[in-house]
Specification:
By secondary structure, this protein is an alpha/beta fold. The protein has six helices and seven strands, in the order αββαβαβαβαββα.
Length: about 170
Amino acid sequence: MSKSPLRGPAAAIAFVLASLTFSPDAGAQESGIAVGLKGPDATMEMLDGTPAKLAPVIAGKPAVIEFWATWCPNCRELEPTMEAAQKKYGTRVAFVGVAVSVNQSPERVRRYTAEHLLGFTHFYDRRGDAVEVYDVPATSYVVVLDKNGTVVYTGLGGKQDIEGAIQKALK
């Protein structure tokens, strides 16, 4: 498994720059975890600092996982699409927000999620565990898993076909 781009100060700076300069018109990508692989578990924190695992949140149903940051313009552009999908699919699909720890704190993420991405289960990836196992190339990275936990879609940028990705996951 390749190392995440979020290890070490130089890598963190590169990640931030990649996140800010990535084309918002991008759709599905060939970077990150490969389609067809099983989505791995990861240990992170809930926003109150409690340690938590990803697997129980996504077990047994399709899941949409977004790796995001409060400062990410592509994430903000994608937000209405993600919120609309969550409202449409509700409890049929698990919606998970993984806040990366680059240039933000759990408190900043808590304040942001009090008004945005409601209905999502939110994690704070302080140590970069989820970022590493999902090989996250930048913020606004979305992974969609089917009910068996198999990756059916990965995408990056502010404009993604989340509806189409969820439809693949529901088949």
